[in-house]
Amino acid sequence: MNNYAEELDRAIEAASSGKPVELDPEKSELVQVALDLKTIADPEFREQLKAELLHGTKRMPFVPGAITREIPNHLEPRSTFLPTLSGIGYGNYPLNQRSFAASLGAHITVLALVVASGVWAASHDRLQPRVTTHLLLPSDYTYAVGSGGMHGGGGGGSLDKLPASHGQPPRFSAEQLTPPRVVVATESRLPVPPTVIGPPNVTFPADRMGDPLSAAITPSNGPGVGGGIGNNRGNGVGSGDGDGVGVGYRAGFGGGTYIPGMGGVSAPRPIYDPEPEYSDEARKAKYQGNVLLWVVVGADGRTRNVKVQRSLGMGLDEQAIKTVNTWRFVPAMKDGQPVAVQVSIEVNFRLF
Amino acid sequence: MHLKIAEPETDERLLIEAAQRDPSRFAGLYEQNFDRVYAFIARRVPTREEAQDLTAEVFHQALASIGKFEWRGTPFVAWLLGITWNTLSAHWERNGKRQEVPADELELAGNDGKIERRAMLAKLVDSLPPDQRLVVVRRFMEQRSIREVAQELSRSEGAIKQLQLRALQALRARLRSSYE
After folding, report:
1. Greatest C-alpha distance within chain A
2. Which chain B residue has the Cα nearest residue A63?
3. Mean of the pLDDT values across residues B88-109?
4. Which domain covers residue A65, as residue numbers?
5. Which of A9, A45, A67 sits opposite B52 (nearest CB)?
6. Which of A62, A275, A304, B22 has an alpha carbon 20 to 30 Å from A205's alpha carbon atom?
7. Chain B partners of A67 at a C-beta cutoff of 8 Å?
8. Is residue A110 part of a domain?
9. What's the pLDDT at A36?
């Protein structure tokens, strides 16, 4: 049986290549069947063509009598075809209406998203405003002496008949070891330069009350009490009350409020501090920078007397003032009592 | 076993009229005539690829122009083979080949015994057991070697030859019985 199968296969190969073969009738008949089978279509091709025809008819408008010999063009390599909506190659591949609809919908959706994102991007600023605020304590900045912009003060004296001497006051210090004197009763063995309580980095203009080194006029500590220079009381300089300089009291200079960190005054702590908003003008101009505000935080924790120390413009100063006016603090404390203090608030306007 | 190759006239006429009303109903005519058209072409071109391309072209043209067909009692396959012959002629012209057309060949095409035999054989292949049918499809329709078929099916070459023998014997027997 195996030999017969091999002989038959050899006969089929020979007959397929056109070689003359002598075979017995039975084998000849089987070879003829095999040769006939070689002229039968591949079942896969048969089904593919059927699908191609039937799916194609769903889309191709049927025109009775129209013989379109050029439509199939099957003599071209099929790999060169691509299904098109209405051009060459139409109908050569099975097309599914649902797939077409899904593809069309997907393309429309993507196109709509692209257009919408473009419109959105064109109508919105790409830069996002960001505003931050910082509460600055005296050690963080340098005071500038201005008219009425600073407060605090001090005074003293030693019950002299003459008014206190005029001149350059001693330098400021956070702590006072030696009060200022024009007339020193006894020299110390370990002399410490006299200071008054106030921001250490303040420079004072001359011709203020209390230059302990001045010999231009008759030296006098002034008619005040307490040990400083002046006509009131305390270890400061001036007509105030305290260890600072000027007409105010407690510390610092100028008159009015305390300065945190000086003379045992604690810093106020913000409990409600919303960030200012960017002004439309500055945002459109992509303008950014810092605004420095000078603020009094009262004993009630509210802000008042908000003033601009460093301006930015374009409405940002106003935005900063408007917002800082709404801030609330736990007030600064001195000796267990809430006191009003001066602080600076830096507002940073940035675009990212 | 009796195989009905040609549908009765009324059935064929109904199929044609259905396809003329709705081209998607062309499937019946396609199934009925595919093997004959393919066999007609395959006898006259050297390669399987050419036979497939030309067969596809014939059926596309037939579908496009079926509305023009008028029923006059002539079998549909005769009209179809007319398109087939025009397609073959155009193909030979494109390739610079000319082939004389015997005057009576076209007239006899519809009743060509060889074509009918091959059309019937195509249908009989589907009735073979699966392993034999697979060997026949790979070996003859796809024209692969015994070795390639053996490798694909993970069988020995001897086993493939045995399957081939049994398939050919079965087809011969069924062809004989269909003509009785």
Report:
1. 158
2. B64
3. 67
4. 43-93
5. A45
6. A304
7. 61, 64-65, 68
8. no
9. 85
Instruction: Encode A238-270 in three state secondary structure.
Output: EEEEEEEEEEEEEEEECCCCECCCCCCCCCCEE
Q: What is the pLDDT of residues A284-320, one digit of tens each?
A: 888 888 889 888 888 889 998 888 888 888 888 998 8
Confidence of residue A75 (pLDDT cuts 50, 70, 90): very low
Last residue of a domain, one of A232, A256, A280: A256
Q: Which helix (H) or strand (E) holds B74?
A: none
A252 and A190: one domain? Answer: yes
Q: Is residue A238 part of a domain?
A: yes
Asked if the model's pLDDT at residue A116 lies above 90, the reply is yes
Residue type, A137: L
Of B34, B68, B172, the CB nearest to A64: B68
- Mean pLDDT of all residues in chain A? 73
pTM as predicted? 0.41
Pairwise CB contact (< 8 Å): B175 & A33: yes
Which pLDDT score, from 0 to 100, does residue A335 have? 83
Question: Which CATH number does B126-180 carry?
Answer: 1.10.10.10
Count of structural domains, chain A: 4
For the domain spanning B1-112, the CATH number is 1.10.1740.10
In this structure, the answer to whether residues A313 and A176 fall within a common structural domain is: no
Query: In this structure, what CATH number is given to the domain that contains residue A306?
Result: 3.30.2420.10
* Cβ contact, residue pair B171, A37, below 8 Å: yes
Contact call for A41 and B136, based on CB within 8 A = no
Residues A303 and A289 grouped into a single domain: yes
CA-derived radius of gyration, chain B: 18
Tell me which of B176 and A91 has the higher pLDDT: B176
Segments of chain B assigned to CATH 1.10.10.10: 126-180
Residue A63 forms contact with B (CB below 8 Å): yes
Q: Does residue A140 register a pLDDT over 70?
A: no
Q: Which residue of B has its CA nearest to A77?
A: B53
**Cα angle: A74, vertex A76, A81; to 5 degrees:** 85
Q: State how far the alpha carbon of B9 is from the alpha carbons of A142, A274, A337, B117, B119, in Å.
A: 113, 94, 118, 20, 19
Average pLDDT value over all residues in chain B? 81
CB atoms within 10 A of CB A181: 19
Chain B: residue nearest A72 by CA?
B57
Amino acid (one-letter) located at A188: S
pLDDT category of residue A144 using cuts at 50, 70 and 90: very low
Where in chain B are all domains bearing CATH 1.10.1740.10? Answer: 1-112
In a domain, A98, yes or no: no
A14 contacts chain B (CB < 8 A): no
Q: Is residue A112 part of a domain?
A: no
